[in-house]
Amino acid sequence: MASEATLRRALVDTCRAMNASGVNQGTSGNASARLDARRFLITPSGRAYDTMKPADLPVMALDGRWSGSYRPSTEWRFHRDIFAARPDVGAIVHAHSSFATALACLRLDVPSFHYMVAVAGGDSIRCTPYATFGTQELSDHALAALEGRKACLLANHGLIATGATPQKALALAIEVETLCGMYLRARAVTEPTQLSADEMARVIELFRSYGTPDFPDDDLRRVTSLAPRRR
Fold this sequence. Notes:
- With 231 residues, this protein is of the alpha+beta class.
- The protein has helices spanning 4-20, 76-85, 98-105, 136-145, 166-189, 197-207, and strands spanning 30-34, 39-42, 59-61, 66-67, 91-95, 151-154, 158-163.
- It has a single domain (4-207), classed as L-fuculose-1-phosphate Aldolase (3-Layer(aba) Sandwich).
- It contains six helices and seven strands, in the order αββββαβααββαα.
- It has a seven-stranded antiparallel β-sheet with strand order 4-3-2-1-5-7-6, sandwiched between helices.
């Protein structure tokens, strides 16, 4: 596991990248990173990302206690509850990105209109019912929508994306935002055709080894070297 200093820097860099990528605006949204089984770092409430320093990040325990110079984000409850319920999650990004939020305001799930929906862990990206920001009710809705998933939409609010690291959580948030934009544009013409449950199950299985040397492809043969042979 990365050191606390490394995680602090990674979380600050991720927050700045959120705004630079257009996934987030101003001081909206928040992010967190697991320190150990009982503690996590989280962005402070109302701090501008471009001036936020690694030392500004408060530390929270799963029992709700915190330490630091600044109060934790008002959304700390769903960060805490996701870390407590999901040992596979190392970092969380929450953003008010345009396309994801537009779909969330329509209270629509993202169905299997494109195979990349599987990158979020299932054959859909669920949208929660509405609850006031920062409440336990919202956290409970988020946990339900994230069951078997890595990302979800929050009704009339935004998105949550999870990952092993802050960088991976942000990468998933960007992917979800892109998919939401595709779905909204396709839906403006007509409801897009959905891929079958069997096809999505096949894609989900392929994603388990995507990006690794073990990714299956019968037409590829790995050799130790392609250097020219000496005569």
